[in-house]
Design a protein that fits this description.
single chain; 701 residues; alpha+beta; five-stranded mixed β-sheet
């Protein structure tokens, strides 16, 4: 038996392709005769198209045609109403696409789109979320199928009688995914077969949706996504670019069409993290044990389709409290449709919960690490199920040791350094273990090499590399003998790269296929035939089977900040995370994912935020000039560590997802550190200099 390669810091297999520019993305296929298309967004916040004048566009050099709701191909009614593009005159929100200009080059398409004149009748609209909004209601369920409301005991009475109480509100603004590669698709007809190259987190889902929309048999469609430049949830389902590209290709059979959505369009058409308004009420006894926990969330959804950010769900699993209530309310508004963004629910929900826990620690005069340890549950509070594994306390202890937490003076404003105020903060993190059915094939070839095929998607996480490691160990062969094919709907069907479920789902099917192939080879009488030997696996019915365990990853985040009391500027000096996420399958790519999540959490805390303009109905921060993501200079010292965790109740690899937990607790740790530095509690993100300075001035500091 060879030494296992799973867990080793193996370099990314596609790394050289990416750094040399040979990795090809969805818009980079120079097919002969290729056309380019650019959508035209509506400029009213709600209304109807009353007329479209395309003559100016058609008179420009290079413009081939313009699609509108009057001449676009008819689509079957989609399950996702955001894909009902150019089907009628309705404008449900600003930025909704009302035309598509097709031209022989991207510059001509851009000029043509600017020359299209659209008349709309504007209607009254409302884009403003508030807790007291008259249309706020309790939905049937939150995103992910979670019950909208869960209640145990009598939390109101328990809170009223608690000797120590915290009753606070927090606000998280709209946030945007903004992957490096914008949403793009290239559609090409070859006779009766449609091939689409698209920037997507799951090509099987794209193929299925296109087949239904355009009335095509699935076997007539191939969707490819070999390289994807990030997604963070926004590419988890088909978006308008792929539907528009196929529409335009249908109108010009034999000529490929590429659609690249301009970055300024993305906030309106590819989803966003909805704003969330939180109310936390924590009651505790004098020893710091929670007696009551209430987390209520109000968020918005669009009138196109309902999406309810499940931000109160994490509170159902985190801390032992005999009385609790977690509830969601949603307000339908004339806004773009929200959708998934890295750690949906957990990222905003844990920011609020972990900030409130810090406030409770201050009220109690208790160390915030010890407060969390004291409220560690024996079983999942919401369901009573045992945890498959839970090592949050170990993460907190190890993080505190590595961070030097014991040297912390708990008093706010106790660590001035020259003109700056410095402080430290802590927060916990959790993310559920999710696994979906997947199929895979493993083939032994006569030259002694092996080929693994699975329609996984590598969105920058290193999926090719980790799946090769899993396969090499299951087959007991050198890693160099493995090739992995992924990113095509023609391969064995696999779920999307999302919900931190990718490796656990794909890896399980790859492992099973390779184990079967190894067993077959062990009893095979002669050399491998010319066509090879192949074994298949499909984990339907096992990967998605109900478990009697509550399965989650956990982590602890620590932050050190410096605050300039003159300018209000906050600088994070150190971030440290320690995670319990099952068996780590590749130390190099895992650390990259943890650090990436923490960096995104830093952006959530300090720089990222969007505003829905009440007068115009659109996002004021729609590009990277106004929506500020962290740069290298903003993250001088970030450390990610993990503890060795054995969990036999997951999958053959013993792995949990790691792509999202890094963002979950970071914003709260930074916010708690700012309070420790300044003595001022800010309860709305991001902690921009104007907000910090205003809070300092109002507090008299």
């Amino acid at each position: 038996m060879r030494s296992p390669v799973t867990g080793a810091p193996v370099e990314r297999r596609e790394g050289r392709e990416k750094v040399t520019g040979t990795a090809r993305y969805a818009a980079e296929f120079p097919f002969p005769g290729r056309l380019f298309a650019r959508p035209v967004p509506a400029e009213v916040a709600r209304g109807r198209v009353t007329g479209v004048d395309v003559s100016g566009a058609l008179g420009l050099p290079g413009v081939v045609s313009v699609l509108t709701h009057e001449n676009a191909p008819r689509l079957a009614e989609p399950d996702d109403a955001t894909l009902a593009l150019l089907q009628n005159a309705r404008v449900p929100h600003r930025g909704w696409f009302v035309a598509l200009v097709v031209a022989d080059g991207p510059e001509a398409a851009r000029a043509g789109a600017a020359a299209v004149h659209v008349d709309c009748s504007a209607e009254p609209f409302d884009v403003t979320l508030s807790v007291t909004h008259p249309d706020a209601r309790v939905p049937q369920e939150a995103n992910g199928g979670y019950p909208a409301v869960r209640e145990r005991g009598d939390p109101q009475q328990a809170f009223a009688s608690a000797p120590v109480r915290v009753d606070v509100g927090y606000r998280v603004p709209p946030l945007h995914n903004h992957p490096m590669e914008p949403h793009a698709s290239t559609a090409r007809w070859d006779g009766e077969h449609l091939t689409v190259h698209t920037s997507s987190q799951g090509t099987t889902a794209v193929r299925d949706v296109l087949a239904k929309l355009f009335g095509l048999a699935e076997e007539r469609i191939t969707v490819v996504a070999e390289h994807v430049g990030g997604g963070f949830g926004s590419k988890g389902t088909p978006r308008p670019d792929v539907v528009l590209a196929v529409m335009a290709a249908l109108r010009h059979t034999g000529r490929p069409v590429t659609v690249v959505l301009p970055r300024r369009f993305l906030p309106s058409v590819v989803g966003h993290r909805a704003p969330t308004l939180h109310r936390l009420r924590l009651g505790a006894d004098a020893d710091g044990r929670l007696t009551s926990l209430e987390h209520e969330v109000t968020t918005h959804t669009s009138r196109v389709k309902e999406f309810v950010e499940q931000a109160a769900v994490p509170a159902r699993v985190m801390y032992a409290a005999p009385h609790s209530r977690t509830a969601h309310r949603v307000v339908p508004l004339d806004v773009p449709s929200p959708s998934w963004m890295r750690a949906p629910g957990e990222a905003p929900g844990m920011y609020a919960l972990e900030s409130a826990m810090d406030e409770l620690a201050v009220e109690l005069g208790m160390d915030p690490v010890e407060l969390r340890v004291r409220n560690e549950p024996e079983t999942e509070p919401d369901s009573g199920r045992p945890f498959s594994s839970r090592h949050l306390v170990e993460c907190l202890r190890e993080g505190a040791r590595r961070f030097g937490w014991e040297r912390r003076d708990p008093r706010p404003r106790s660590r001035p350094q020259g003109p700056l105020l410095t402080g430290t903060g802590v927060a916990a993190a959790t993310y559920p273990v999710m696994m979906l059915p997947s199929a895979a094939a493993a083939r032994a070839l006569p030259d002694g090499s092996f080929l693994v095929e699975v329609n996984a998607t590598d969105i920058g996480t290193g999926a090719r590399t980790v799946l090769a490691q899993i396969a090499a160990d299951a087959l007991d062969v050198p890693l160099e003998s493995l090739r992995v094919r992924l990113g095509s709907s023609d391969l064995p069907s696999a779920p999307v790269a999302g919900g931190s479920s990718g490796t656990a789902s794909w890896g399980r099917s790859v492992h099973e296929a390779c184990v079967r192939l190894a067993e077959r080879l062990a009893g095979f009488p002669g050399p491998v035939p010319e066509h090879g030997l192949v074994e298949h696996a499909d984990t339907a019915g096992t990967a998605d089977a109900d478990s009697r365990y509550s399965r989650h990853a956990f982590g602890a985040h620590f932050a050190e900040v410096a605050v300039d009391p003159v300018t209000g500027e906050v600088r994070v000096r150190r971030l440290l995370g320690v995670y319990a996420a099952g068996r780590i399958l590749n130390a190099r790519t895992a650390r990259s994912q943890f650090v990436g999540g923490m960096t995104m959490g830093l952006g959530m805390a300090l720089t990222e935020g969007s505003t829905l303009d009440a007068a115009f109905g659109d996002f004021a921060e729609s590009d990277l000039a106004s929506y500020h993501v962290p740069a290298h200079a903003d993250v001088p010292d970030v450390e990610a560590h993990w503890i060795e965790e054995e969990d036999p109740h997951l999958n053959p690899m013993g792995s949990k997802g790691i792509g999202e937990i890094g963002i979950v607790g970071t914003a709260a740790a930074v916010g708690n550190a700012v309070h420790h530095a300044t003595g001022v509690r800010l309860r709305e993100l991001p902690l921009t200099p104007d907000r910090v300075l205003t809070a300092l001035l109002e507090s008299g500091h």
